[in-house]
Please model this.
Amino acid sequence: MEHASAAAAVVDTHGTVTGWSEGARRLTGRPAAEAVGRPARDLLAEPLPPGALTALAGTVVLRHRDGSPVALPVRACPLLDAAGTVTGYAVTADATTGAEPTLAGQAFQQASMSFSVFDTRQRYLRLNDVACQVMGVPEDTLRGRPFPETVEDAEHSQGFLDHLREVTETGRPVHYESFTGEPSGNREHAWNIEMWPVRDPAGDLVGVALAAFDSSEQYWARERLALLNEAAASIGTTLDVVRTAEELIELLVPRYADFASVDLFEWVLGPDERPPLTDGEIALRRVAHGSATPGTPEKAVHLGETDLYPEFSPPAQALRRGRAVVSQAGEPDFMRWVAERNARAPEGAPQRRGVHSLLAVPLRARGTTLGVAVLIRIAHPDDYAADDAVLAEELASRAAVCIDNARRFARERSTALALQNSLLPRGLTGQAAVEVAHRYLPSGSLAGIGGDWFDVIPLSGSRVALVVGDVVGHGIASSATMGRLCTAVRTLADVDLPPDELLTHLDDLVAHLASGEEAVAEVAELGATCLYAVYDPVTRRLALASAGHPAPVVVRPDGTSEVVEMTAGPPLGVGGLPFEATEVELPEGSVVALYTDGLTESRERDVDDATDELRRALTAPADSLETLCDTVLKAVLPEEPGDDVALLVARTRALGADRIATWDIEADPAHVAAARQAATEQLTAWGLEEAAFVTELVVSELVTNAIRYGASPVQLRLIRDRTLICEVSDGSSTSPHLRRAHAFDEGGRGLLLVAQLTERWGSRQTGSGKTIWCEQPLPPDCRMP
Model:
């Protein structure tokens, strides 16, 4: 009987146990040596039920070796000798085949959740059908065996055993959740487990019962919700297309895929518009991939490479259908796809050998398909299912919106930067009053390109205008507004207005733009600051005015530096407040630095401290203004500028007395000839005899007009610079203008003659009247450096 699988015993007619099977040992924990020879009633925990002896059948309660009760349905069969005399009884109890005799037992056995009963030594006493399915073996295989012998040595198994012991030791119930695979399969499950003590009628703890509910669906629902919440926080932290794709990969691997990749259409990464999706192979560029294995050995395409996806491939199918495609090992398209990957990159074939499930999901945003994400499972035991496809589509949708936002931002930034660069001066030639160098650094912040700008404008009389401005806001609107203001300043500078008057006109323009009905939505974008300065190399004076802009820093030749003391007027567009001009005299070789607030303003430091750093940086030794610009940016610029930065540095030059000739002319036409003669003699002294003929005609016409139509005093001035400049000033503020003279008119041709003989001409208002000027080109060898 020691090899019998069922629990069986032999009892003689005196009630003594004479036989004991292996099944009985596993059931009661008692070996044959302890049971054979003992009265059968000593093995009972409770008296036999009435009628059991007569019927030779019934439910008896045995006492386990550890003292716990074991209720079993049993049946007895008489044993006869050769004469037919009863010599004993064979008692059997087969729990695997016997039906539960009570309703409660049937409910236990047929329950939809896993029920188990253990003794105080963590040995199996009872299991219901679901528990046997989970364990993958019949109940009689587990009865009497300690729990550790029936499972693998793993962390979750040790945790289960620790909880069983805790209930035994404390006598208190335990509730906990566990996520592990079931012994009978490779699919991972979530279990909601309740353990409680079992006591006998005397109150002594004799066992531990447990109920385990498979809460995998609820667990995965929570995991998916947590993944979506994490995606909202971790995807799209930057407006960078590639980084956004990498964030999606980091979220998916390894928790949701063993390998994942993101491939985008080429146009997403460039300035081109979306082309139509054609039949045949689809070309995509790999921008991100990741693997649970270091080195990403599963990849068949390197980062930055373009790959052609055949029509049968899951990624191509997902792109054409516009929805997720799930593919499993054994399917024809799946096997062809893996074979194609192995042929493309055979070194990764060993890692792809275990691929059993693939999920391809299109990246769609605002009705546009941007690319595809591919998820692959190798070590992960579960295949992708329909609910995984739904989750992947949601994650891909969120990532696609972030990628599209980054694409739009990059395109707008590129457009704004191109627009701004086209409006900023490319070469600052055409003047000799100052030597200049400049830097413009567009902002790298998420706000986009700002509206910082600068300009150097040649004026009459060898003077030069230095301009720096900053438009409020960022993006294309700010760049467009900057272009308007830049053009307006050049137009007003051509009129040769003083700095304060020029800013007044510019302020009126901004107010007009902001009040236009078509620009109501752009009012906030039209606020701006501006600094306008005019340097005269003859007087060595710098006249400047500010509209809400930082004052410039001046470094004199002796190395001293200072911020120009001036009254900053209101920003452009405020209106109703005046602008005040300031004048400073600068020695030749002084350095003037004009800049926008992005250079000195940041959240991490005080503006005054940054301005002091700027002053110190400007006094640092430098072999050129270009080097000085780099030194300033390195010393003053914040580590992460939050705004655009414009820096304009100018070193002043001066025109000496040997290059300027001035004559006061009496308001009498008889003195015109003397003025011509004086101009001719001066040109001879300068070695400019070739320019004498034109100069005589110009001087004659301009002086004659000043005497005839202007007012005293009249003054003639010649300036030898890169051009020959002739200026005639008088006390009248009436501006001259060209007019077409008729055939028989005796006059009216003077300014027309000046305009035809010279390179350019114009007039400007002065404090005492006006000045008419013109410029003649000089041969290269006659120009002053």
In short: The mean pLDDT is 84.
